[in-house]
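Quick one: structure for this chain?
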Amino acid sequence: MAALRRTLHVATLAAGARRALAGSLAGSCLADRRLWDKLHADTRKGHVPTFDWFFGYEETQGLLLPLLQETAAACPLRVLDVGCGTSSLCTGLYTQCPYPVDVLGVDFSPVAIAHMKRLLEGGEGQTPLCPGHPASRLHFMQADAQNLEPVASSGSFHLVLDKGTWDAVARGGPQGAYQLLSECLRVLRPQGTLIQFSDEDPDVRLPYLEQGSPGWSVTVQEVGPFGGITYFAYLVQGSH
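Got it. Here's what it folds into:
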């Protein structure tokens, strides 16, 4: 979580803009939707197409593509990104994945969702995004990741991605983080995979995941380092 507080991995932002964003987050409750509405609105004013905590799609594809290839018999693969914000994770999967994917990005910030819909559709004079596979699809919906009932039925996704969302929700207390985990596992297929990307140490994160995921396999892989920081991919998987 340290990097979530101190590092904004946005190479295209000017240094002054990065400092302004980091300052706006210092001491704030990262579970507060108003904070994210303001952050995404400020980022949009800077004409930055996407904004990534930790890292973007490019840094995750080495882990994601082999995992997607294993389940490529399902067509298309359903992928859910909880707390997508304006990250490049959804758009990267849609535009670069060679396998057919049906990606849904959800976030409780209406500002973030409106921005990503414009990016997808080519609003404000931009070129619409093109899929990496003809059968791939990408959608964005406003929803609270702690209550996915309005947008996702049980057992409906092959892969659920959480890049920094647990970290943000946990700032409001462990109860919300456990509710987030419960919802992610509810919408997963029995043989599906949840991946949490974080900089939080395994000694801290693993006990929470193991306690909150009875009957699921919990493992961890190092990711990076990027920008001098080592991150972790926490995989919660059903039986294969």
